[in-house]
Amino acid sequence: MPTKAQDSMMIVSEPTRDELGARAGSHAGRVLREALRGGGTARVMLAAAPSQSATLAALAAEAGIDWARVELFHMDEYVGLAPDAPQGFATWLTTTFVGHLPGARLHRIDPAGDAEAEAARYGELLGREPFDLVLLGLGVNGHLAFNDPPADFADPCGVRVVALDATSRRQQVEEGHFATFDDVPATAVTVTIPRLLNAATVIASVPGRAKRTAVAQTLREPIGPMHPGTALRTHPNVTLYLDAEADPR
Ligand SMILES: O=C(O)[C@H](O)[C@@H](O)[C@H](O)[C@H](O)COP(=O)(O)O
Question: Does the keyword section mention Hydrolase (predicted)?
């Protein structure tokens, strides 16, 4: 499919979710092989969500990546879940992705315990070095990680505790992760937008009809806090992978 620039963002539209994943995963594989060339390490920031499944599956199948030299982080976690709860984002990532990669290390955000202290700890761990690669999705409300609108594009903090808005919590019920709205934790630890976008390469995987409005807003609305996804247009190296259902054009 043709690609097209929107502001500085490249857009790749594929017919299906699996084709989107194959294309985004192979892009991520190229970025990682390049980052690892010369024998160093690479730092990768991950979203943990169904929209990422096809991309992560394709990336896991990529050849020539020494996962023992890749440090993996995740961008958000619910507050108050048991550390092994199936809804936990670190647990989901371990089961679907990291557990299949020999030698890969995921730095987990701990959902139990003192959330403020955990946000501070994780922020320290991330430090200020840019990520080599960020793989992210877009919420139904346009969020990046758990930065719901209005999102702070200039947050001086790297990781913080946030209240989840109703759309974000409903999305989790609609996707089948929780039985009821009240079961979805009301707060989360999230990497902030400036820290998330402090990255050499950002690959956004956004499949599905439920995301079409959020994609349209991300592409067309003025850049600003009410549409967190518009922050992607401020970054020089973002590729947005869509499937036909998500593509509003
Ligand atoms: O899961 C995460 O790590 C992030 O909180 C979130 O930003 C997510 O990537 C989008 O909400 C898309 O989520 P879905 O794939 O569930 O639609």
Answer: yes
